[in-house]
Model the fold of this input.
Amino acid sequence: MPRQNIIPDILSIYNSPKSKRPWHFEELVGRRPVNYFAFGRGALVEAFRLCGVGQDDKVLLPAYICRGVLASLHAVGAHPLYYQVERNLKAAFNPNSTPPAKAVLAVNYFGFPQHLDIFERYCKRTGAFIIEDNAHGLFSMDEEGRMLGTRSDMGVFSLRKTIPLPNGAALVINRSDFNDKLAKQKPFEASRADFLFTLKQSVRRFIGSFGVQSARAVISILRIRRQMMIGSPIPLPDPDDEVVLPEPAGCSPLVRDGINTVHPRLETDRRRALYLFLHEWIGRHSKCTPVFKDLPDGVVPYGYPFICEPDDLKNIERLLFRKGFLCISWPDLPDAVKESSPSFYKKVRLVPFLW
Ligand SMILES: Cc1ncc(COP(=O)(O)O)c(C=O)c1O
Done:
């Protein structure tokens, strides 16, 4: 990969010129049928409903997943059937012998395309539907130039993870026989999150104009405050996330009215520049190893994922923070897989590209 000499400013997004014309997610996905939700988990519930997943049905999903996804299964009364992933996060199960499920989740981890052939073979045998979980991969494409989230029966997007928004997620339908079955769009509703978002955006813009040092100071204060309140500088895992869907259900009107907090092309460039910088810099400053060895054309990364041994963690966290980057553990694994999972599942760290 080419060496990057410029350190991209993680906060530049909040003060960069906005897109002249607000854009709509439907345009991005070629005007396919779309239903909007506040969270990706709501979009998953609707996806399961469309696939006919009901009480005591099975959904095949990766064991390497955040526990919140289980709440969507819980909402329709379904049970998880887990498959494992390789160290490069490629799905690893036998499509000829894995027990049948009503639906299977193919996750484009961190915006990198998941190979779908294994899922297609499984579905051919069992009649399951493929839901492409593209919560991380807005703007991303595969090597054939296909937008992630549009390559299988349906795609789930969590827009709020890539774009500064109060909330916002989408379910995209990619097969015409489902068009009429898609539920009516629930009303868009401004909630407390919209009010807080406006406030946060002003604060981010203000802090951003003073550079990374002031942002670091604010983060440090927030961490000290959290430490005093809950005894930890970062939010604690909550087992209830496996059964409770987040509120509100309705998507923010900002998504309906046109998104103007980032420009798709500028955001693509910003994310790829951050990724290339970190790929080179982390490799030079630590023994940590990348999850993906390349950044293929078309991929718009969610963040920079890498594998870090426990001994190196404090050091790399400190170095990254000095440069203005945070580093989080991903995912908060479901309780059922925590103990039995391969050790690298717990060693993946992610540098998020949104503060
Ligand atoms: C891979 C994946 N899918 C789905 C979701 C659910 O998205 P949301 O948090 O918007 O409900 C998440 C959340 O972290 C996720 O990481």
